[in-house]
Design a protein that fits this description.
Shape: elongated
Number of helices: 2
Order of helices and strands: HEEHEEEEEEEEEEEEE
Radius of gyration: 25 Å
Strand order of the largest sheet: 6-15-14-9-10
CATH architecture of the largest domain: Sandwich
Number of strands: 15
Structural class: alpha+beta
Number of domains: 2
Strand content: 35-45%
CATH topology of the largest domain: Immunoglobulin-like
């Protein structure tokens, strides 16, 4: 007579599946913590914890800022034609402006007052960042030209792809933000 082991193998299979799932869970957690850390909420140039705490105040301050000022980011495209950057669900997606990587780039941040407020002497902060990572973030130097025009000093874009320009303007008690997507090709 032969004995069958089929009655003992299923508990080992279940234990094996649980061990496999535990290893996969720890692997996902490791990858997400080591390779994809969330340190900054780039839209507001702050740590994400601070944005979580102050989000309602930030939105209210932006609304107040928008009543007094308008921010424009004036970039100069390489060509007059829009650049097809990718396809989403079969449709072309275009960026308004394109820059060449490793070549100097310069643009202006233009602040205009809606109610006669002062547009000179405000603090302008500009961040150049990638959409998917903060690894290549650059805080750009800005100089005041006059009459609400703030020129970003020449800089180079590290590599081709999608980038985002984020601007933070602090005009006295008013704080506002603006952003624009650009493409380096």
């Amino acid at each position: 007579m032969s004995q069958s082991n089929s009655g003992r193998s299923w508990p080992l299979s279940i234990i094996g599946i649980f061990i496999f799932l535990a290893i996969m869970l720890f692997g996902i957690l490791y990858i997400s913590l080591v390779y994809v850390p969330v340190n900054k909420e780039n839209v507001y140039l702050m740590d994400y914890q601070q944005v979580d705490k102050e989000y309602n105040d930030i939105v209210e301050a932006q609304g107040t800022f928008d009543k007094h000022y308008a921010i424009a980011i004036k970039t100069t495209p390489l060509s007059s034609e829009p650049v097809e950057t990718m396809r989403v669900n079969g449709e072309k997606v275009y960026f308004e402006h394109a820059f060449a990587p490793e070549k100097p780039v310069q643009f202006d941040v233009i602040l205009s007052a809606k109610q006669g407020d002062n547009v000179n002497g405000v603090k302008v902060t500009v961040l150049l960042t990638r959409y998917e990572t903060g690894k290549y973030d650059q805080t750009l130097e800005v100089e005041e030209v006059g009459n609400g025009v703030y020129r970003v000093k020449p800089f180079t874009i590290a590599q081709a792809g999608r980038w985002k320009i984020i601007v933070r303007v602090a005009a006295g008690e008013f704080i506002g933000y603006a952003e624009r997507g650009v493409f380096a090709q």
